[in-house]
């Protein structure tokens, strides 16, 4: 009797394993793991089959398993908030298990860093420190620099004396002080230049919930162009007061002598456009188009002023909360 019961148990175990590998011999099974670029397992990642509208979450080890899939080719996607989604194609065979592993990349954050340079604040070590940050982080800093000829003329300095003046005060820096040298993602950094790197690093360490893709056209002969902006929310966005800002810049270097020394400026602001409001929903791309123009000169109505190199132009685009001034992501495009 015991021998008979043992045979039944063994048979049930074999059947159970068969069912686990694939409960239906006419369908297939897909399984695998989701990891990040360091090889760490990603728990609670979403794995989905687009054609079948099937979704499943990975477990604590990053493992997933989807049974009863019709044979044929299937497009799969793995995603998680603040990560860039990964897409794979798999061919499912009836009665067999297919393994599909994903590697997803955390969405890198770009920092919108701006430096005000005047007759008092354009020299060393602040300028060198700010340039060093740009070189250190390369494309992860969307860096803008703008300058006035002197503290006395600051309030009348173009573009602050134009419509761009009020736009900047309202939509970028809440506390725009001439003594402040660095602005990072809408925050005024009243600190020494030696602390700039720590401020930038702390912001870069936080992944961005947004992905910004830019494309566009620019005609130097007409000094005008258009930028197309595609914004995708990779996470739920709590801010409901978001706007998209646009800053046209000359790449430089621009050589300027405000205090008797020739100082090279790069990514100098030449036109600040009126921002656009935007509503973002997780996973739903939003496309915006913006026309822009490039002025002939920047600077005071009286010399010194700078003749803009219209063949050396780019544009920075950033998404920002109007109330908190928090910048969620920034991206730049050189023409």
Automatic annotation (TrEMBL):
InterPro entries (alphabetical): Carb-bd-like_fold (IPR013784)
One MF annotation (Gene Ontology) recorded for this entry: carbohydrate binding
Q: Return the Pfam families for the record.
A: CarboxypepD_reg (PF13620)
Which superkingdom?
Bacteria
Q: Which Gene3D superfamilies match?
A: Carboxypeptidase-like, regulatory domain
Protein name per Swiss-Prot or TrEMBL: Carboxypeptidase regulatory-like domain-containing protein
Species per Swiss-Prot/TrEMBL record = candidate division WOR-3 bacterium RBG_13_43_14
